[in-house]
Design goal:
This protein has 439 residues and is α/β, with parallel strands linked by helices. It is built from 16 helices and 18 strands. The strands form three sheets. Strands 1, 2, 3, 4, 5, 15, 16, 17 and 18 form a nine-stranded mixed beta sheet that branches. Strands 6, 7, 8, 9 and 10 form a five-stranded parallel beta sheet that branches. Helix 9 links the parallel strand 12 and strand 13 (272-275). The chain is globular and about 70 Å long. Bound molecules: the ligand CSC[C@H]1O[C@@H](n2cnc3c(O)ncnc32)[C@H](O)[C@@H]1O and zinc ion. The site of zinc ion has 5 residues, from loops.
């Protein structure tokens, strides 16, 4: 017997030019075991425990969001129209001081509902508070999470920093071996401007000895790079390289202010970059040189950052912005094609977040995929599917989401989470937080 058969779907494979106009996928024990054209043979149908007719639907890989902070969804709309340093120091950090377990749970759950509804199957998440609660929520939601307890080093004693790093490493290793097999662990020092060189070196050493990947906010604003040059006499990329940071697999978030030399260095060191275009636009940080990164062969994926700088987690919008922004900013419409943008949001994202057996609709790969309703007027004429997915579709067009072959949303109905309760609780906890913050 087989777990699941989905037939009558237009399958968008993305790893090559192939497109299956009418095809089926057969899933067993969490993986695709067949991806084929045409109606499935009767013998196969008889052996499938669950059968879904996907007539009028597009089947493609779900999104992997490679940079976010899910608990911050509790703060949506709390800090708009400010540059990064003011945003952090005057609005975000003062509120984060009051976040407790219930608020973290409420914010994370809200984020997970939003992610599922808009077709995200996995993500890389970092926060400095209660990441154990985030992990539990991810497991309950049925999604995939590459998780990290974020670390800021300023204002802590050497012993406190040792303990922080130890805690972060123990958590990360625990997630790596979690029974769900849907969690990964990262070490994530917040940024070169909030972590001392000694601490960054200690984190890099620990990553190497524990075989853990790293992530970090890198070269997000011009001001940050200038301040770094003044303080250390070098730019942040070179600084991290000198500290041995790139000796482990690294996913750098943002990479807005990097020059050609730095792009080459990052490429040579196999660093991948999470491009977060909407957050960069909203905070006025700038536009990452994605066209040049692609030309040099740097591995790129796409992230939303938190909803406080976005203000949503819809990867359709993020992928579209990634494709449009380069064209407009660099006056070159050939930069970042629709296919390349969609690949960054799916296949490349899965790899960057460490889910190396996901991201493709292919036999042997983990069955992490979505169905999109292709009958909507804004998706007609129906033929140019990749173009429509990038330039016309939105998260609201997603009808079904599967992770390891298990439905987490079916015909727009959430299976794993209680949306009504989560929305109620998010508002409730936001009011509590506001009460504490204002007093
Ligand atoms: C110490 S982990 C979490 C820490 O990061 C802050 N944060 C969220 N988004 C960004 C960003 O784009 N750049 C820098 N820092 C960011 C978040 O508020 C937490 O304090
Ligand atoms: Zn961030």
């Amino acid at each position: 017997m087989y777990d699941l058969l989905i037939h009558n779907a237009a399958v968008i494979t993305l790893d090559n030019e192939e497109m299956i106009d009418n095809g089926f996928v057969l899933v067993h024990e969490g993986r695709f075991i067949q991806v084929s054209e045409g109606p499935p043979p009767l013998a196969l149908k008889e052996k499938a425990v669950n059968i879904k007719d996907a007539k009028g639907k597009w089947l493609l890989s779900g999104f992997f969001n490679t940079h976010c902070h899910t608990p911050m969804s509790i703060l949506r709309g709390a800090a708009d129209d400010l540059p990064l340093d003011q945003w952090l120091k005057e609005e975000v950090w003062p509120r984060e001081k009051f976040l407790d377990k219930d608020m973290i749970h409420a914010g994370t759950s809200l984020a997970l509902v939003e992610m599922i509804r808009s077709g995200t199957v996995g993500f890389l998440d970092m926060y400095h508070l209660h990441m154990d609660i985030v992990a539990e929520a991810v497991v309950e939601a049925g999604l995939k999470g590459a998780l990290s307890r974020g670390m800021i080093a300023l204002g802590f004693t050497p012993q406190e920093l040792k303990d922080k790093l130890n805690e972060a490493a123990v958590l990360a290793k625990g997630w790596e071996s979690h029974e769900s097999k849907r969690l990964k662990g990262f070490l994530f020092p917040h940024a070169p401007y909030t972590c001392t060189p000694d601490f960054l070196e200690a984190v890099a050493d620990r990553a190497r000895s524990e075989n853990l990947p790293l992530s970090i906010h890198l070269a997000e604003t011009k001001k940050e790079v200038a301040r770094h040059e003044k303080e250390y006499g070098k730019r942040p990329v070179e600084h991290l390289d000198d500290l041995g940071f790139f000796e482990s697999p690294v996913l750098a978030a943002h990479g807005v202010h990097v020059n050609s030399f730095e792009i080459k260095l990052l490429t040579d060191k196999n660093v991948s970059v999470s491009h977060n275009p909407l957050s960069n636009l909203k905070l006025g940080s700038g536009v990452a040189p994605v066209g040049e990164m692609m030309k040099q062969g740097l591995h790129l994926s796409i992230g939303t950052d938190s909803v406080v700088s976005n203000n949503n987690l819809d990867m359709f919008q993020e992928v579209r912005t990634a494709a449009l922004l380069q064209k407009g900013f660099f006056h070159d419409a050939s930069l970042v094609t629709a296919r390349e943008a969609l690949q960054m949001g799916t296949i490349h994202g899965a790899k960057a977040a460490g889910f190396t057996e996901s991201g493709l609709i292919k036999e042997g790969y983990e069955a992490d995929f979505i169905l999109v309703d292709s009958s909507k007027p804004h998706l007609q004429p129906v033929e140019n599917r990749v173009s429509h997915l990038v330039y016309s579709a939105s998260g609201q067009d997603v009808t079904d989401v599967f992770v390891n072959g298990r439905a987490v949303m079916r015909n727009k109905e959430l299976i794993t989470l209680d949306e009504e309760k989560i929305v109620y609780e998010a508002n409730n906890q936001y009011r509590r937080l506001n009460g504490l913050y204002r007093n």
